[in-house]
Amino acid sequence: MDLLTQGEWEMEGAWWTKLAVLIVATLAAIVLLIPTFWSVDREDPASWPGWYSFLVERVPNRITPGLDLQGGLLLQYQVDVDRALSDRMDRFADDLRRSIRRAHPDAQVTIGRVPGLPSLRVSAQGRDVRPLLDDDLLSLMNLRMLPEAGGGVRLDLSSEFVEQVRSTAVDQVIETIRSRIDALGVAEPSLTRRGDTDVIVQMPGLSQDQFDNAKELIGTTAILQFKMVSNQDGGFFQSASHQAVEGLEQGFDRPRAPRLDLIRQAYENVEAPEGTEIAYQEVERFNAQTGRAELIGYEPILLEAAVRLTGEYVTDARVSQDPQTNRPVVSLTLDASGARIFGEMTRENVGRQMAIVLDGVVSSAPRINEPILGGRVQITMGRSGSYQEIFASAERLTIVLRNGALQAPIELQFETQVGPTLGEQAVRSGASALVVAFLLVLLFVVYWYKVAGAVTVLALLLNVLFILAMLALFNATMTLPGIAGITLTIGMAVDANIIIYERIKEELRDGRTMRAALHAGYEKAFSAIIDANITTGIACIILWTYGSGPVRGFAITLFVGILCSLYTALIVTRLVFDYLLDGAKLQRISI
C-alpha cells in the first residue's frame, strides 16, 4: 500500500471516530471545569442553581488555588522524635512490670531507664532476673538481653526498631494534623515531610480567626494518660524539698495568669520518690464579683509513674453537659481493651484518687468510689472561664481525641502568612505571563505557517483546556509553579507541531502530493516527538518523587501537559488537516 492509498484509507476509516472522541473529550473537559470557574457562593449550597447542584453532586472535583495564589498560612513544625522513643520505652517498661507481676507475684523487680540510651535495666532483689523475663515478649518488643553483674540485665532496643519508631512518629504526626485540619473544615490543606523530623503545613484561604484556631488545634499535643495519685503525696510535699519553692505564691497572685512555667522550673531538680513523678494541677478561686471560678495558678501533685491507660484506647469523644454543675464536659468511649484495663484499674483502687493527665497537666483527680465498667469516662474541663470558653475548649479537645493524640510533641519552627493581596498580585502576574506567552506563540506560528499555524493555535487552545480539566479531575491545587508548567507546555506543544510541519515541507519539496506529504510528515516526526516527551516525562517523575511543595506542583502540571500536547499535536492537528483535505476539498494547505 503506497503512502497516498494508506492516507486515504486512514482518513475514510478513522476520521469520524477521531472527531467523535475529540467532541466528547472537549465537552467532558468543559463540564469538569464548570465547578472551578463558575462564580457561586461555595459556602452556601442553598444559593446554587439547580443545574449546578446537579453537576457538583456528580462532578465535585475542581482546581483549588494554592497558598501563593489565594493567600493562607504556612507552618513548619519539628517533631520531637526522641520523646516518642522515650515514651515507647516507658510503655515497654510498664508492660514488663505487668508481665512479671502476673507470672511471679512474689518477685521484687526494679525496671529503670538507662540514661541517654534506648535501653532498660532490670534487676531483682536476691535472685537472677533472667528466668523472670518472657522471651516471646522481649522479641515482640525488639529488645535484646545483655547480662550484667549481680544477676541483672540490660535490654537494648534494636537500631532498626529505633529508626522505625522515629519515622513512624513523624508519619503519625502528619496524619493526625491532617485529620485535625479536616475536622476544622479547612479546604485543600497540604502536609509534606521535610528531612527526618520537620513537617510543612500549608493551609490556603483562611481568615485571621481560622489562622488562630488552626494553629491552636495543631499545636495541641493532647497526650491523655490515666495515672493513680501516689499515697506519698502529703508527706513528700511537706518535706524540705517543698520549702525550696515556697516563694512561688507570687506566681499565683494574678487572675487568669497562671505561672505553670515557674512552678515547673522550681521543681525541675526536685527528685520524686522511686516509682512516682511530679505533676501539676490547676488551682481555682471563686470570684464573687464575676460569679465564677478563675484559674489563679498551679500546685504540684505526686502521681505514680506507671501509665495505666492512654488516649490510644479512645474510640469516641463528645462534648456533653454535667447534670450536677451544668458545665460542659468531655465524655469518652473506650474500646474493648481500654474498657477492660479501666475496669481493672478502678476495681483495684477503690477509695483512691485517679488523675486524668492531659499534656502533663492534671485535668482532674476524682476519687474512685466504685469500679467503673463499660468503657465510659468523663473529663471535667474545670470551672474557670465563661460557659462559651469552656465549651470551645471542650470542643477542641474532642476533635483532638477523636482524631488521635500526637505520639510526639511538636515545636513550631516558623510561620509565614500570605495575605490575599499578595495572592491576587501573584495570580495577575502568572496569568499575564501565560497570556503573553500564548499570544507570542500564536503570532509566530500564524505568521510563519499560515493556515497550518492557525491549526496549531486551535490545538493549543484545546491543549490548555484538557490540561486544566485533568487537573480539576484530580482535585489539583494550582500554584505559580503550576502556571509555569502550563506555560512551558505551550512551548513544547508548538515545538512538536514545528517538527511535523518541517517534515511535511521536506516531503512537498520532494514532489509528493499534499495528502502523501501530510502522512509522511507525521510518520517521520512521530519518533522524534515521542523521544523528546518521554525524556521530559522521566524528568517530571524524578521531580515528583524527590521534590516537595512547588517543585512537585511544577512536575505534575508539566507531566499532564506532556500527555495533552501529544494528543493535540499528533491527533487533533491531523484530524483538522484530514477535514480540510476531505470535507473542504482543498488541494493544498499553506504551510
Describe the SSE topology.
Blueprint: H1 3-37, H2 50-58, E1 64-65, H3 67-70, E2 72-79, H4 81-103, E3 109-113, E4 119-124, H5 135-140, E5 143-147, E6 153-157, H6 159-184, E7 190-194, E8 198-204, H7 208-219, E9 224-228, H8 233-237, H9 240-243, H10 260-266, E10 276-287, E11 292-304, E12 309-310, E13 314-321, E14 328-334, H11 336-348, E15 354-358, E16 361-364, E17 376-380, H12 387-402, E18 410-418, H13 420-473, E19 477-478, H14 480-509, H15 514-546, H16 550-582
Helix pairs in contact: 1-13, 1-15, 1-16, 4-6, 6-7, 13-14, 13-16, 14-15, 14-16, 15-16
What do you see in this structure?
The protein has about 600 residues and is α+β, with helices and mostly antiparallel strands. It has helices at about 5-35, 50-60, 65-70, 80-105, 135-140, 160-185, 210-220, 235, 240-245, 260-265, 335-350, 385-400, 420-475, 480-510, 515-545, 550-580; strands at about 65, 70-80, 110-115, 120-125, 145, 155, 190-195, 200-205, 225-230, 275-285, 290-305, 310, 315-320, 330-335, 355-360, 360-365, 375-380, 410-420, 475-480. Strands 11-10-16-15-9-12 form a six-stranded mixed beta sheet. A four-stranded antiparallel beta sheet has the order 7-8-2-18. Strand 15 (about 355-360) and strand 16 form a beta hairpin. Helix 6 packs antiparallel against helix 7 (about 210-220) and helix 13 crosses helix 14 (about 480-510).
Keywords:
alpha+beta, six-stranded mixed β-sheet, elongated, four-stranded antiparallel β-sheet, 19% strand, 591 residues
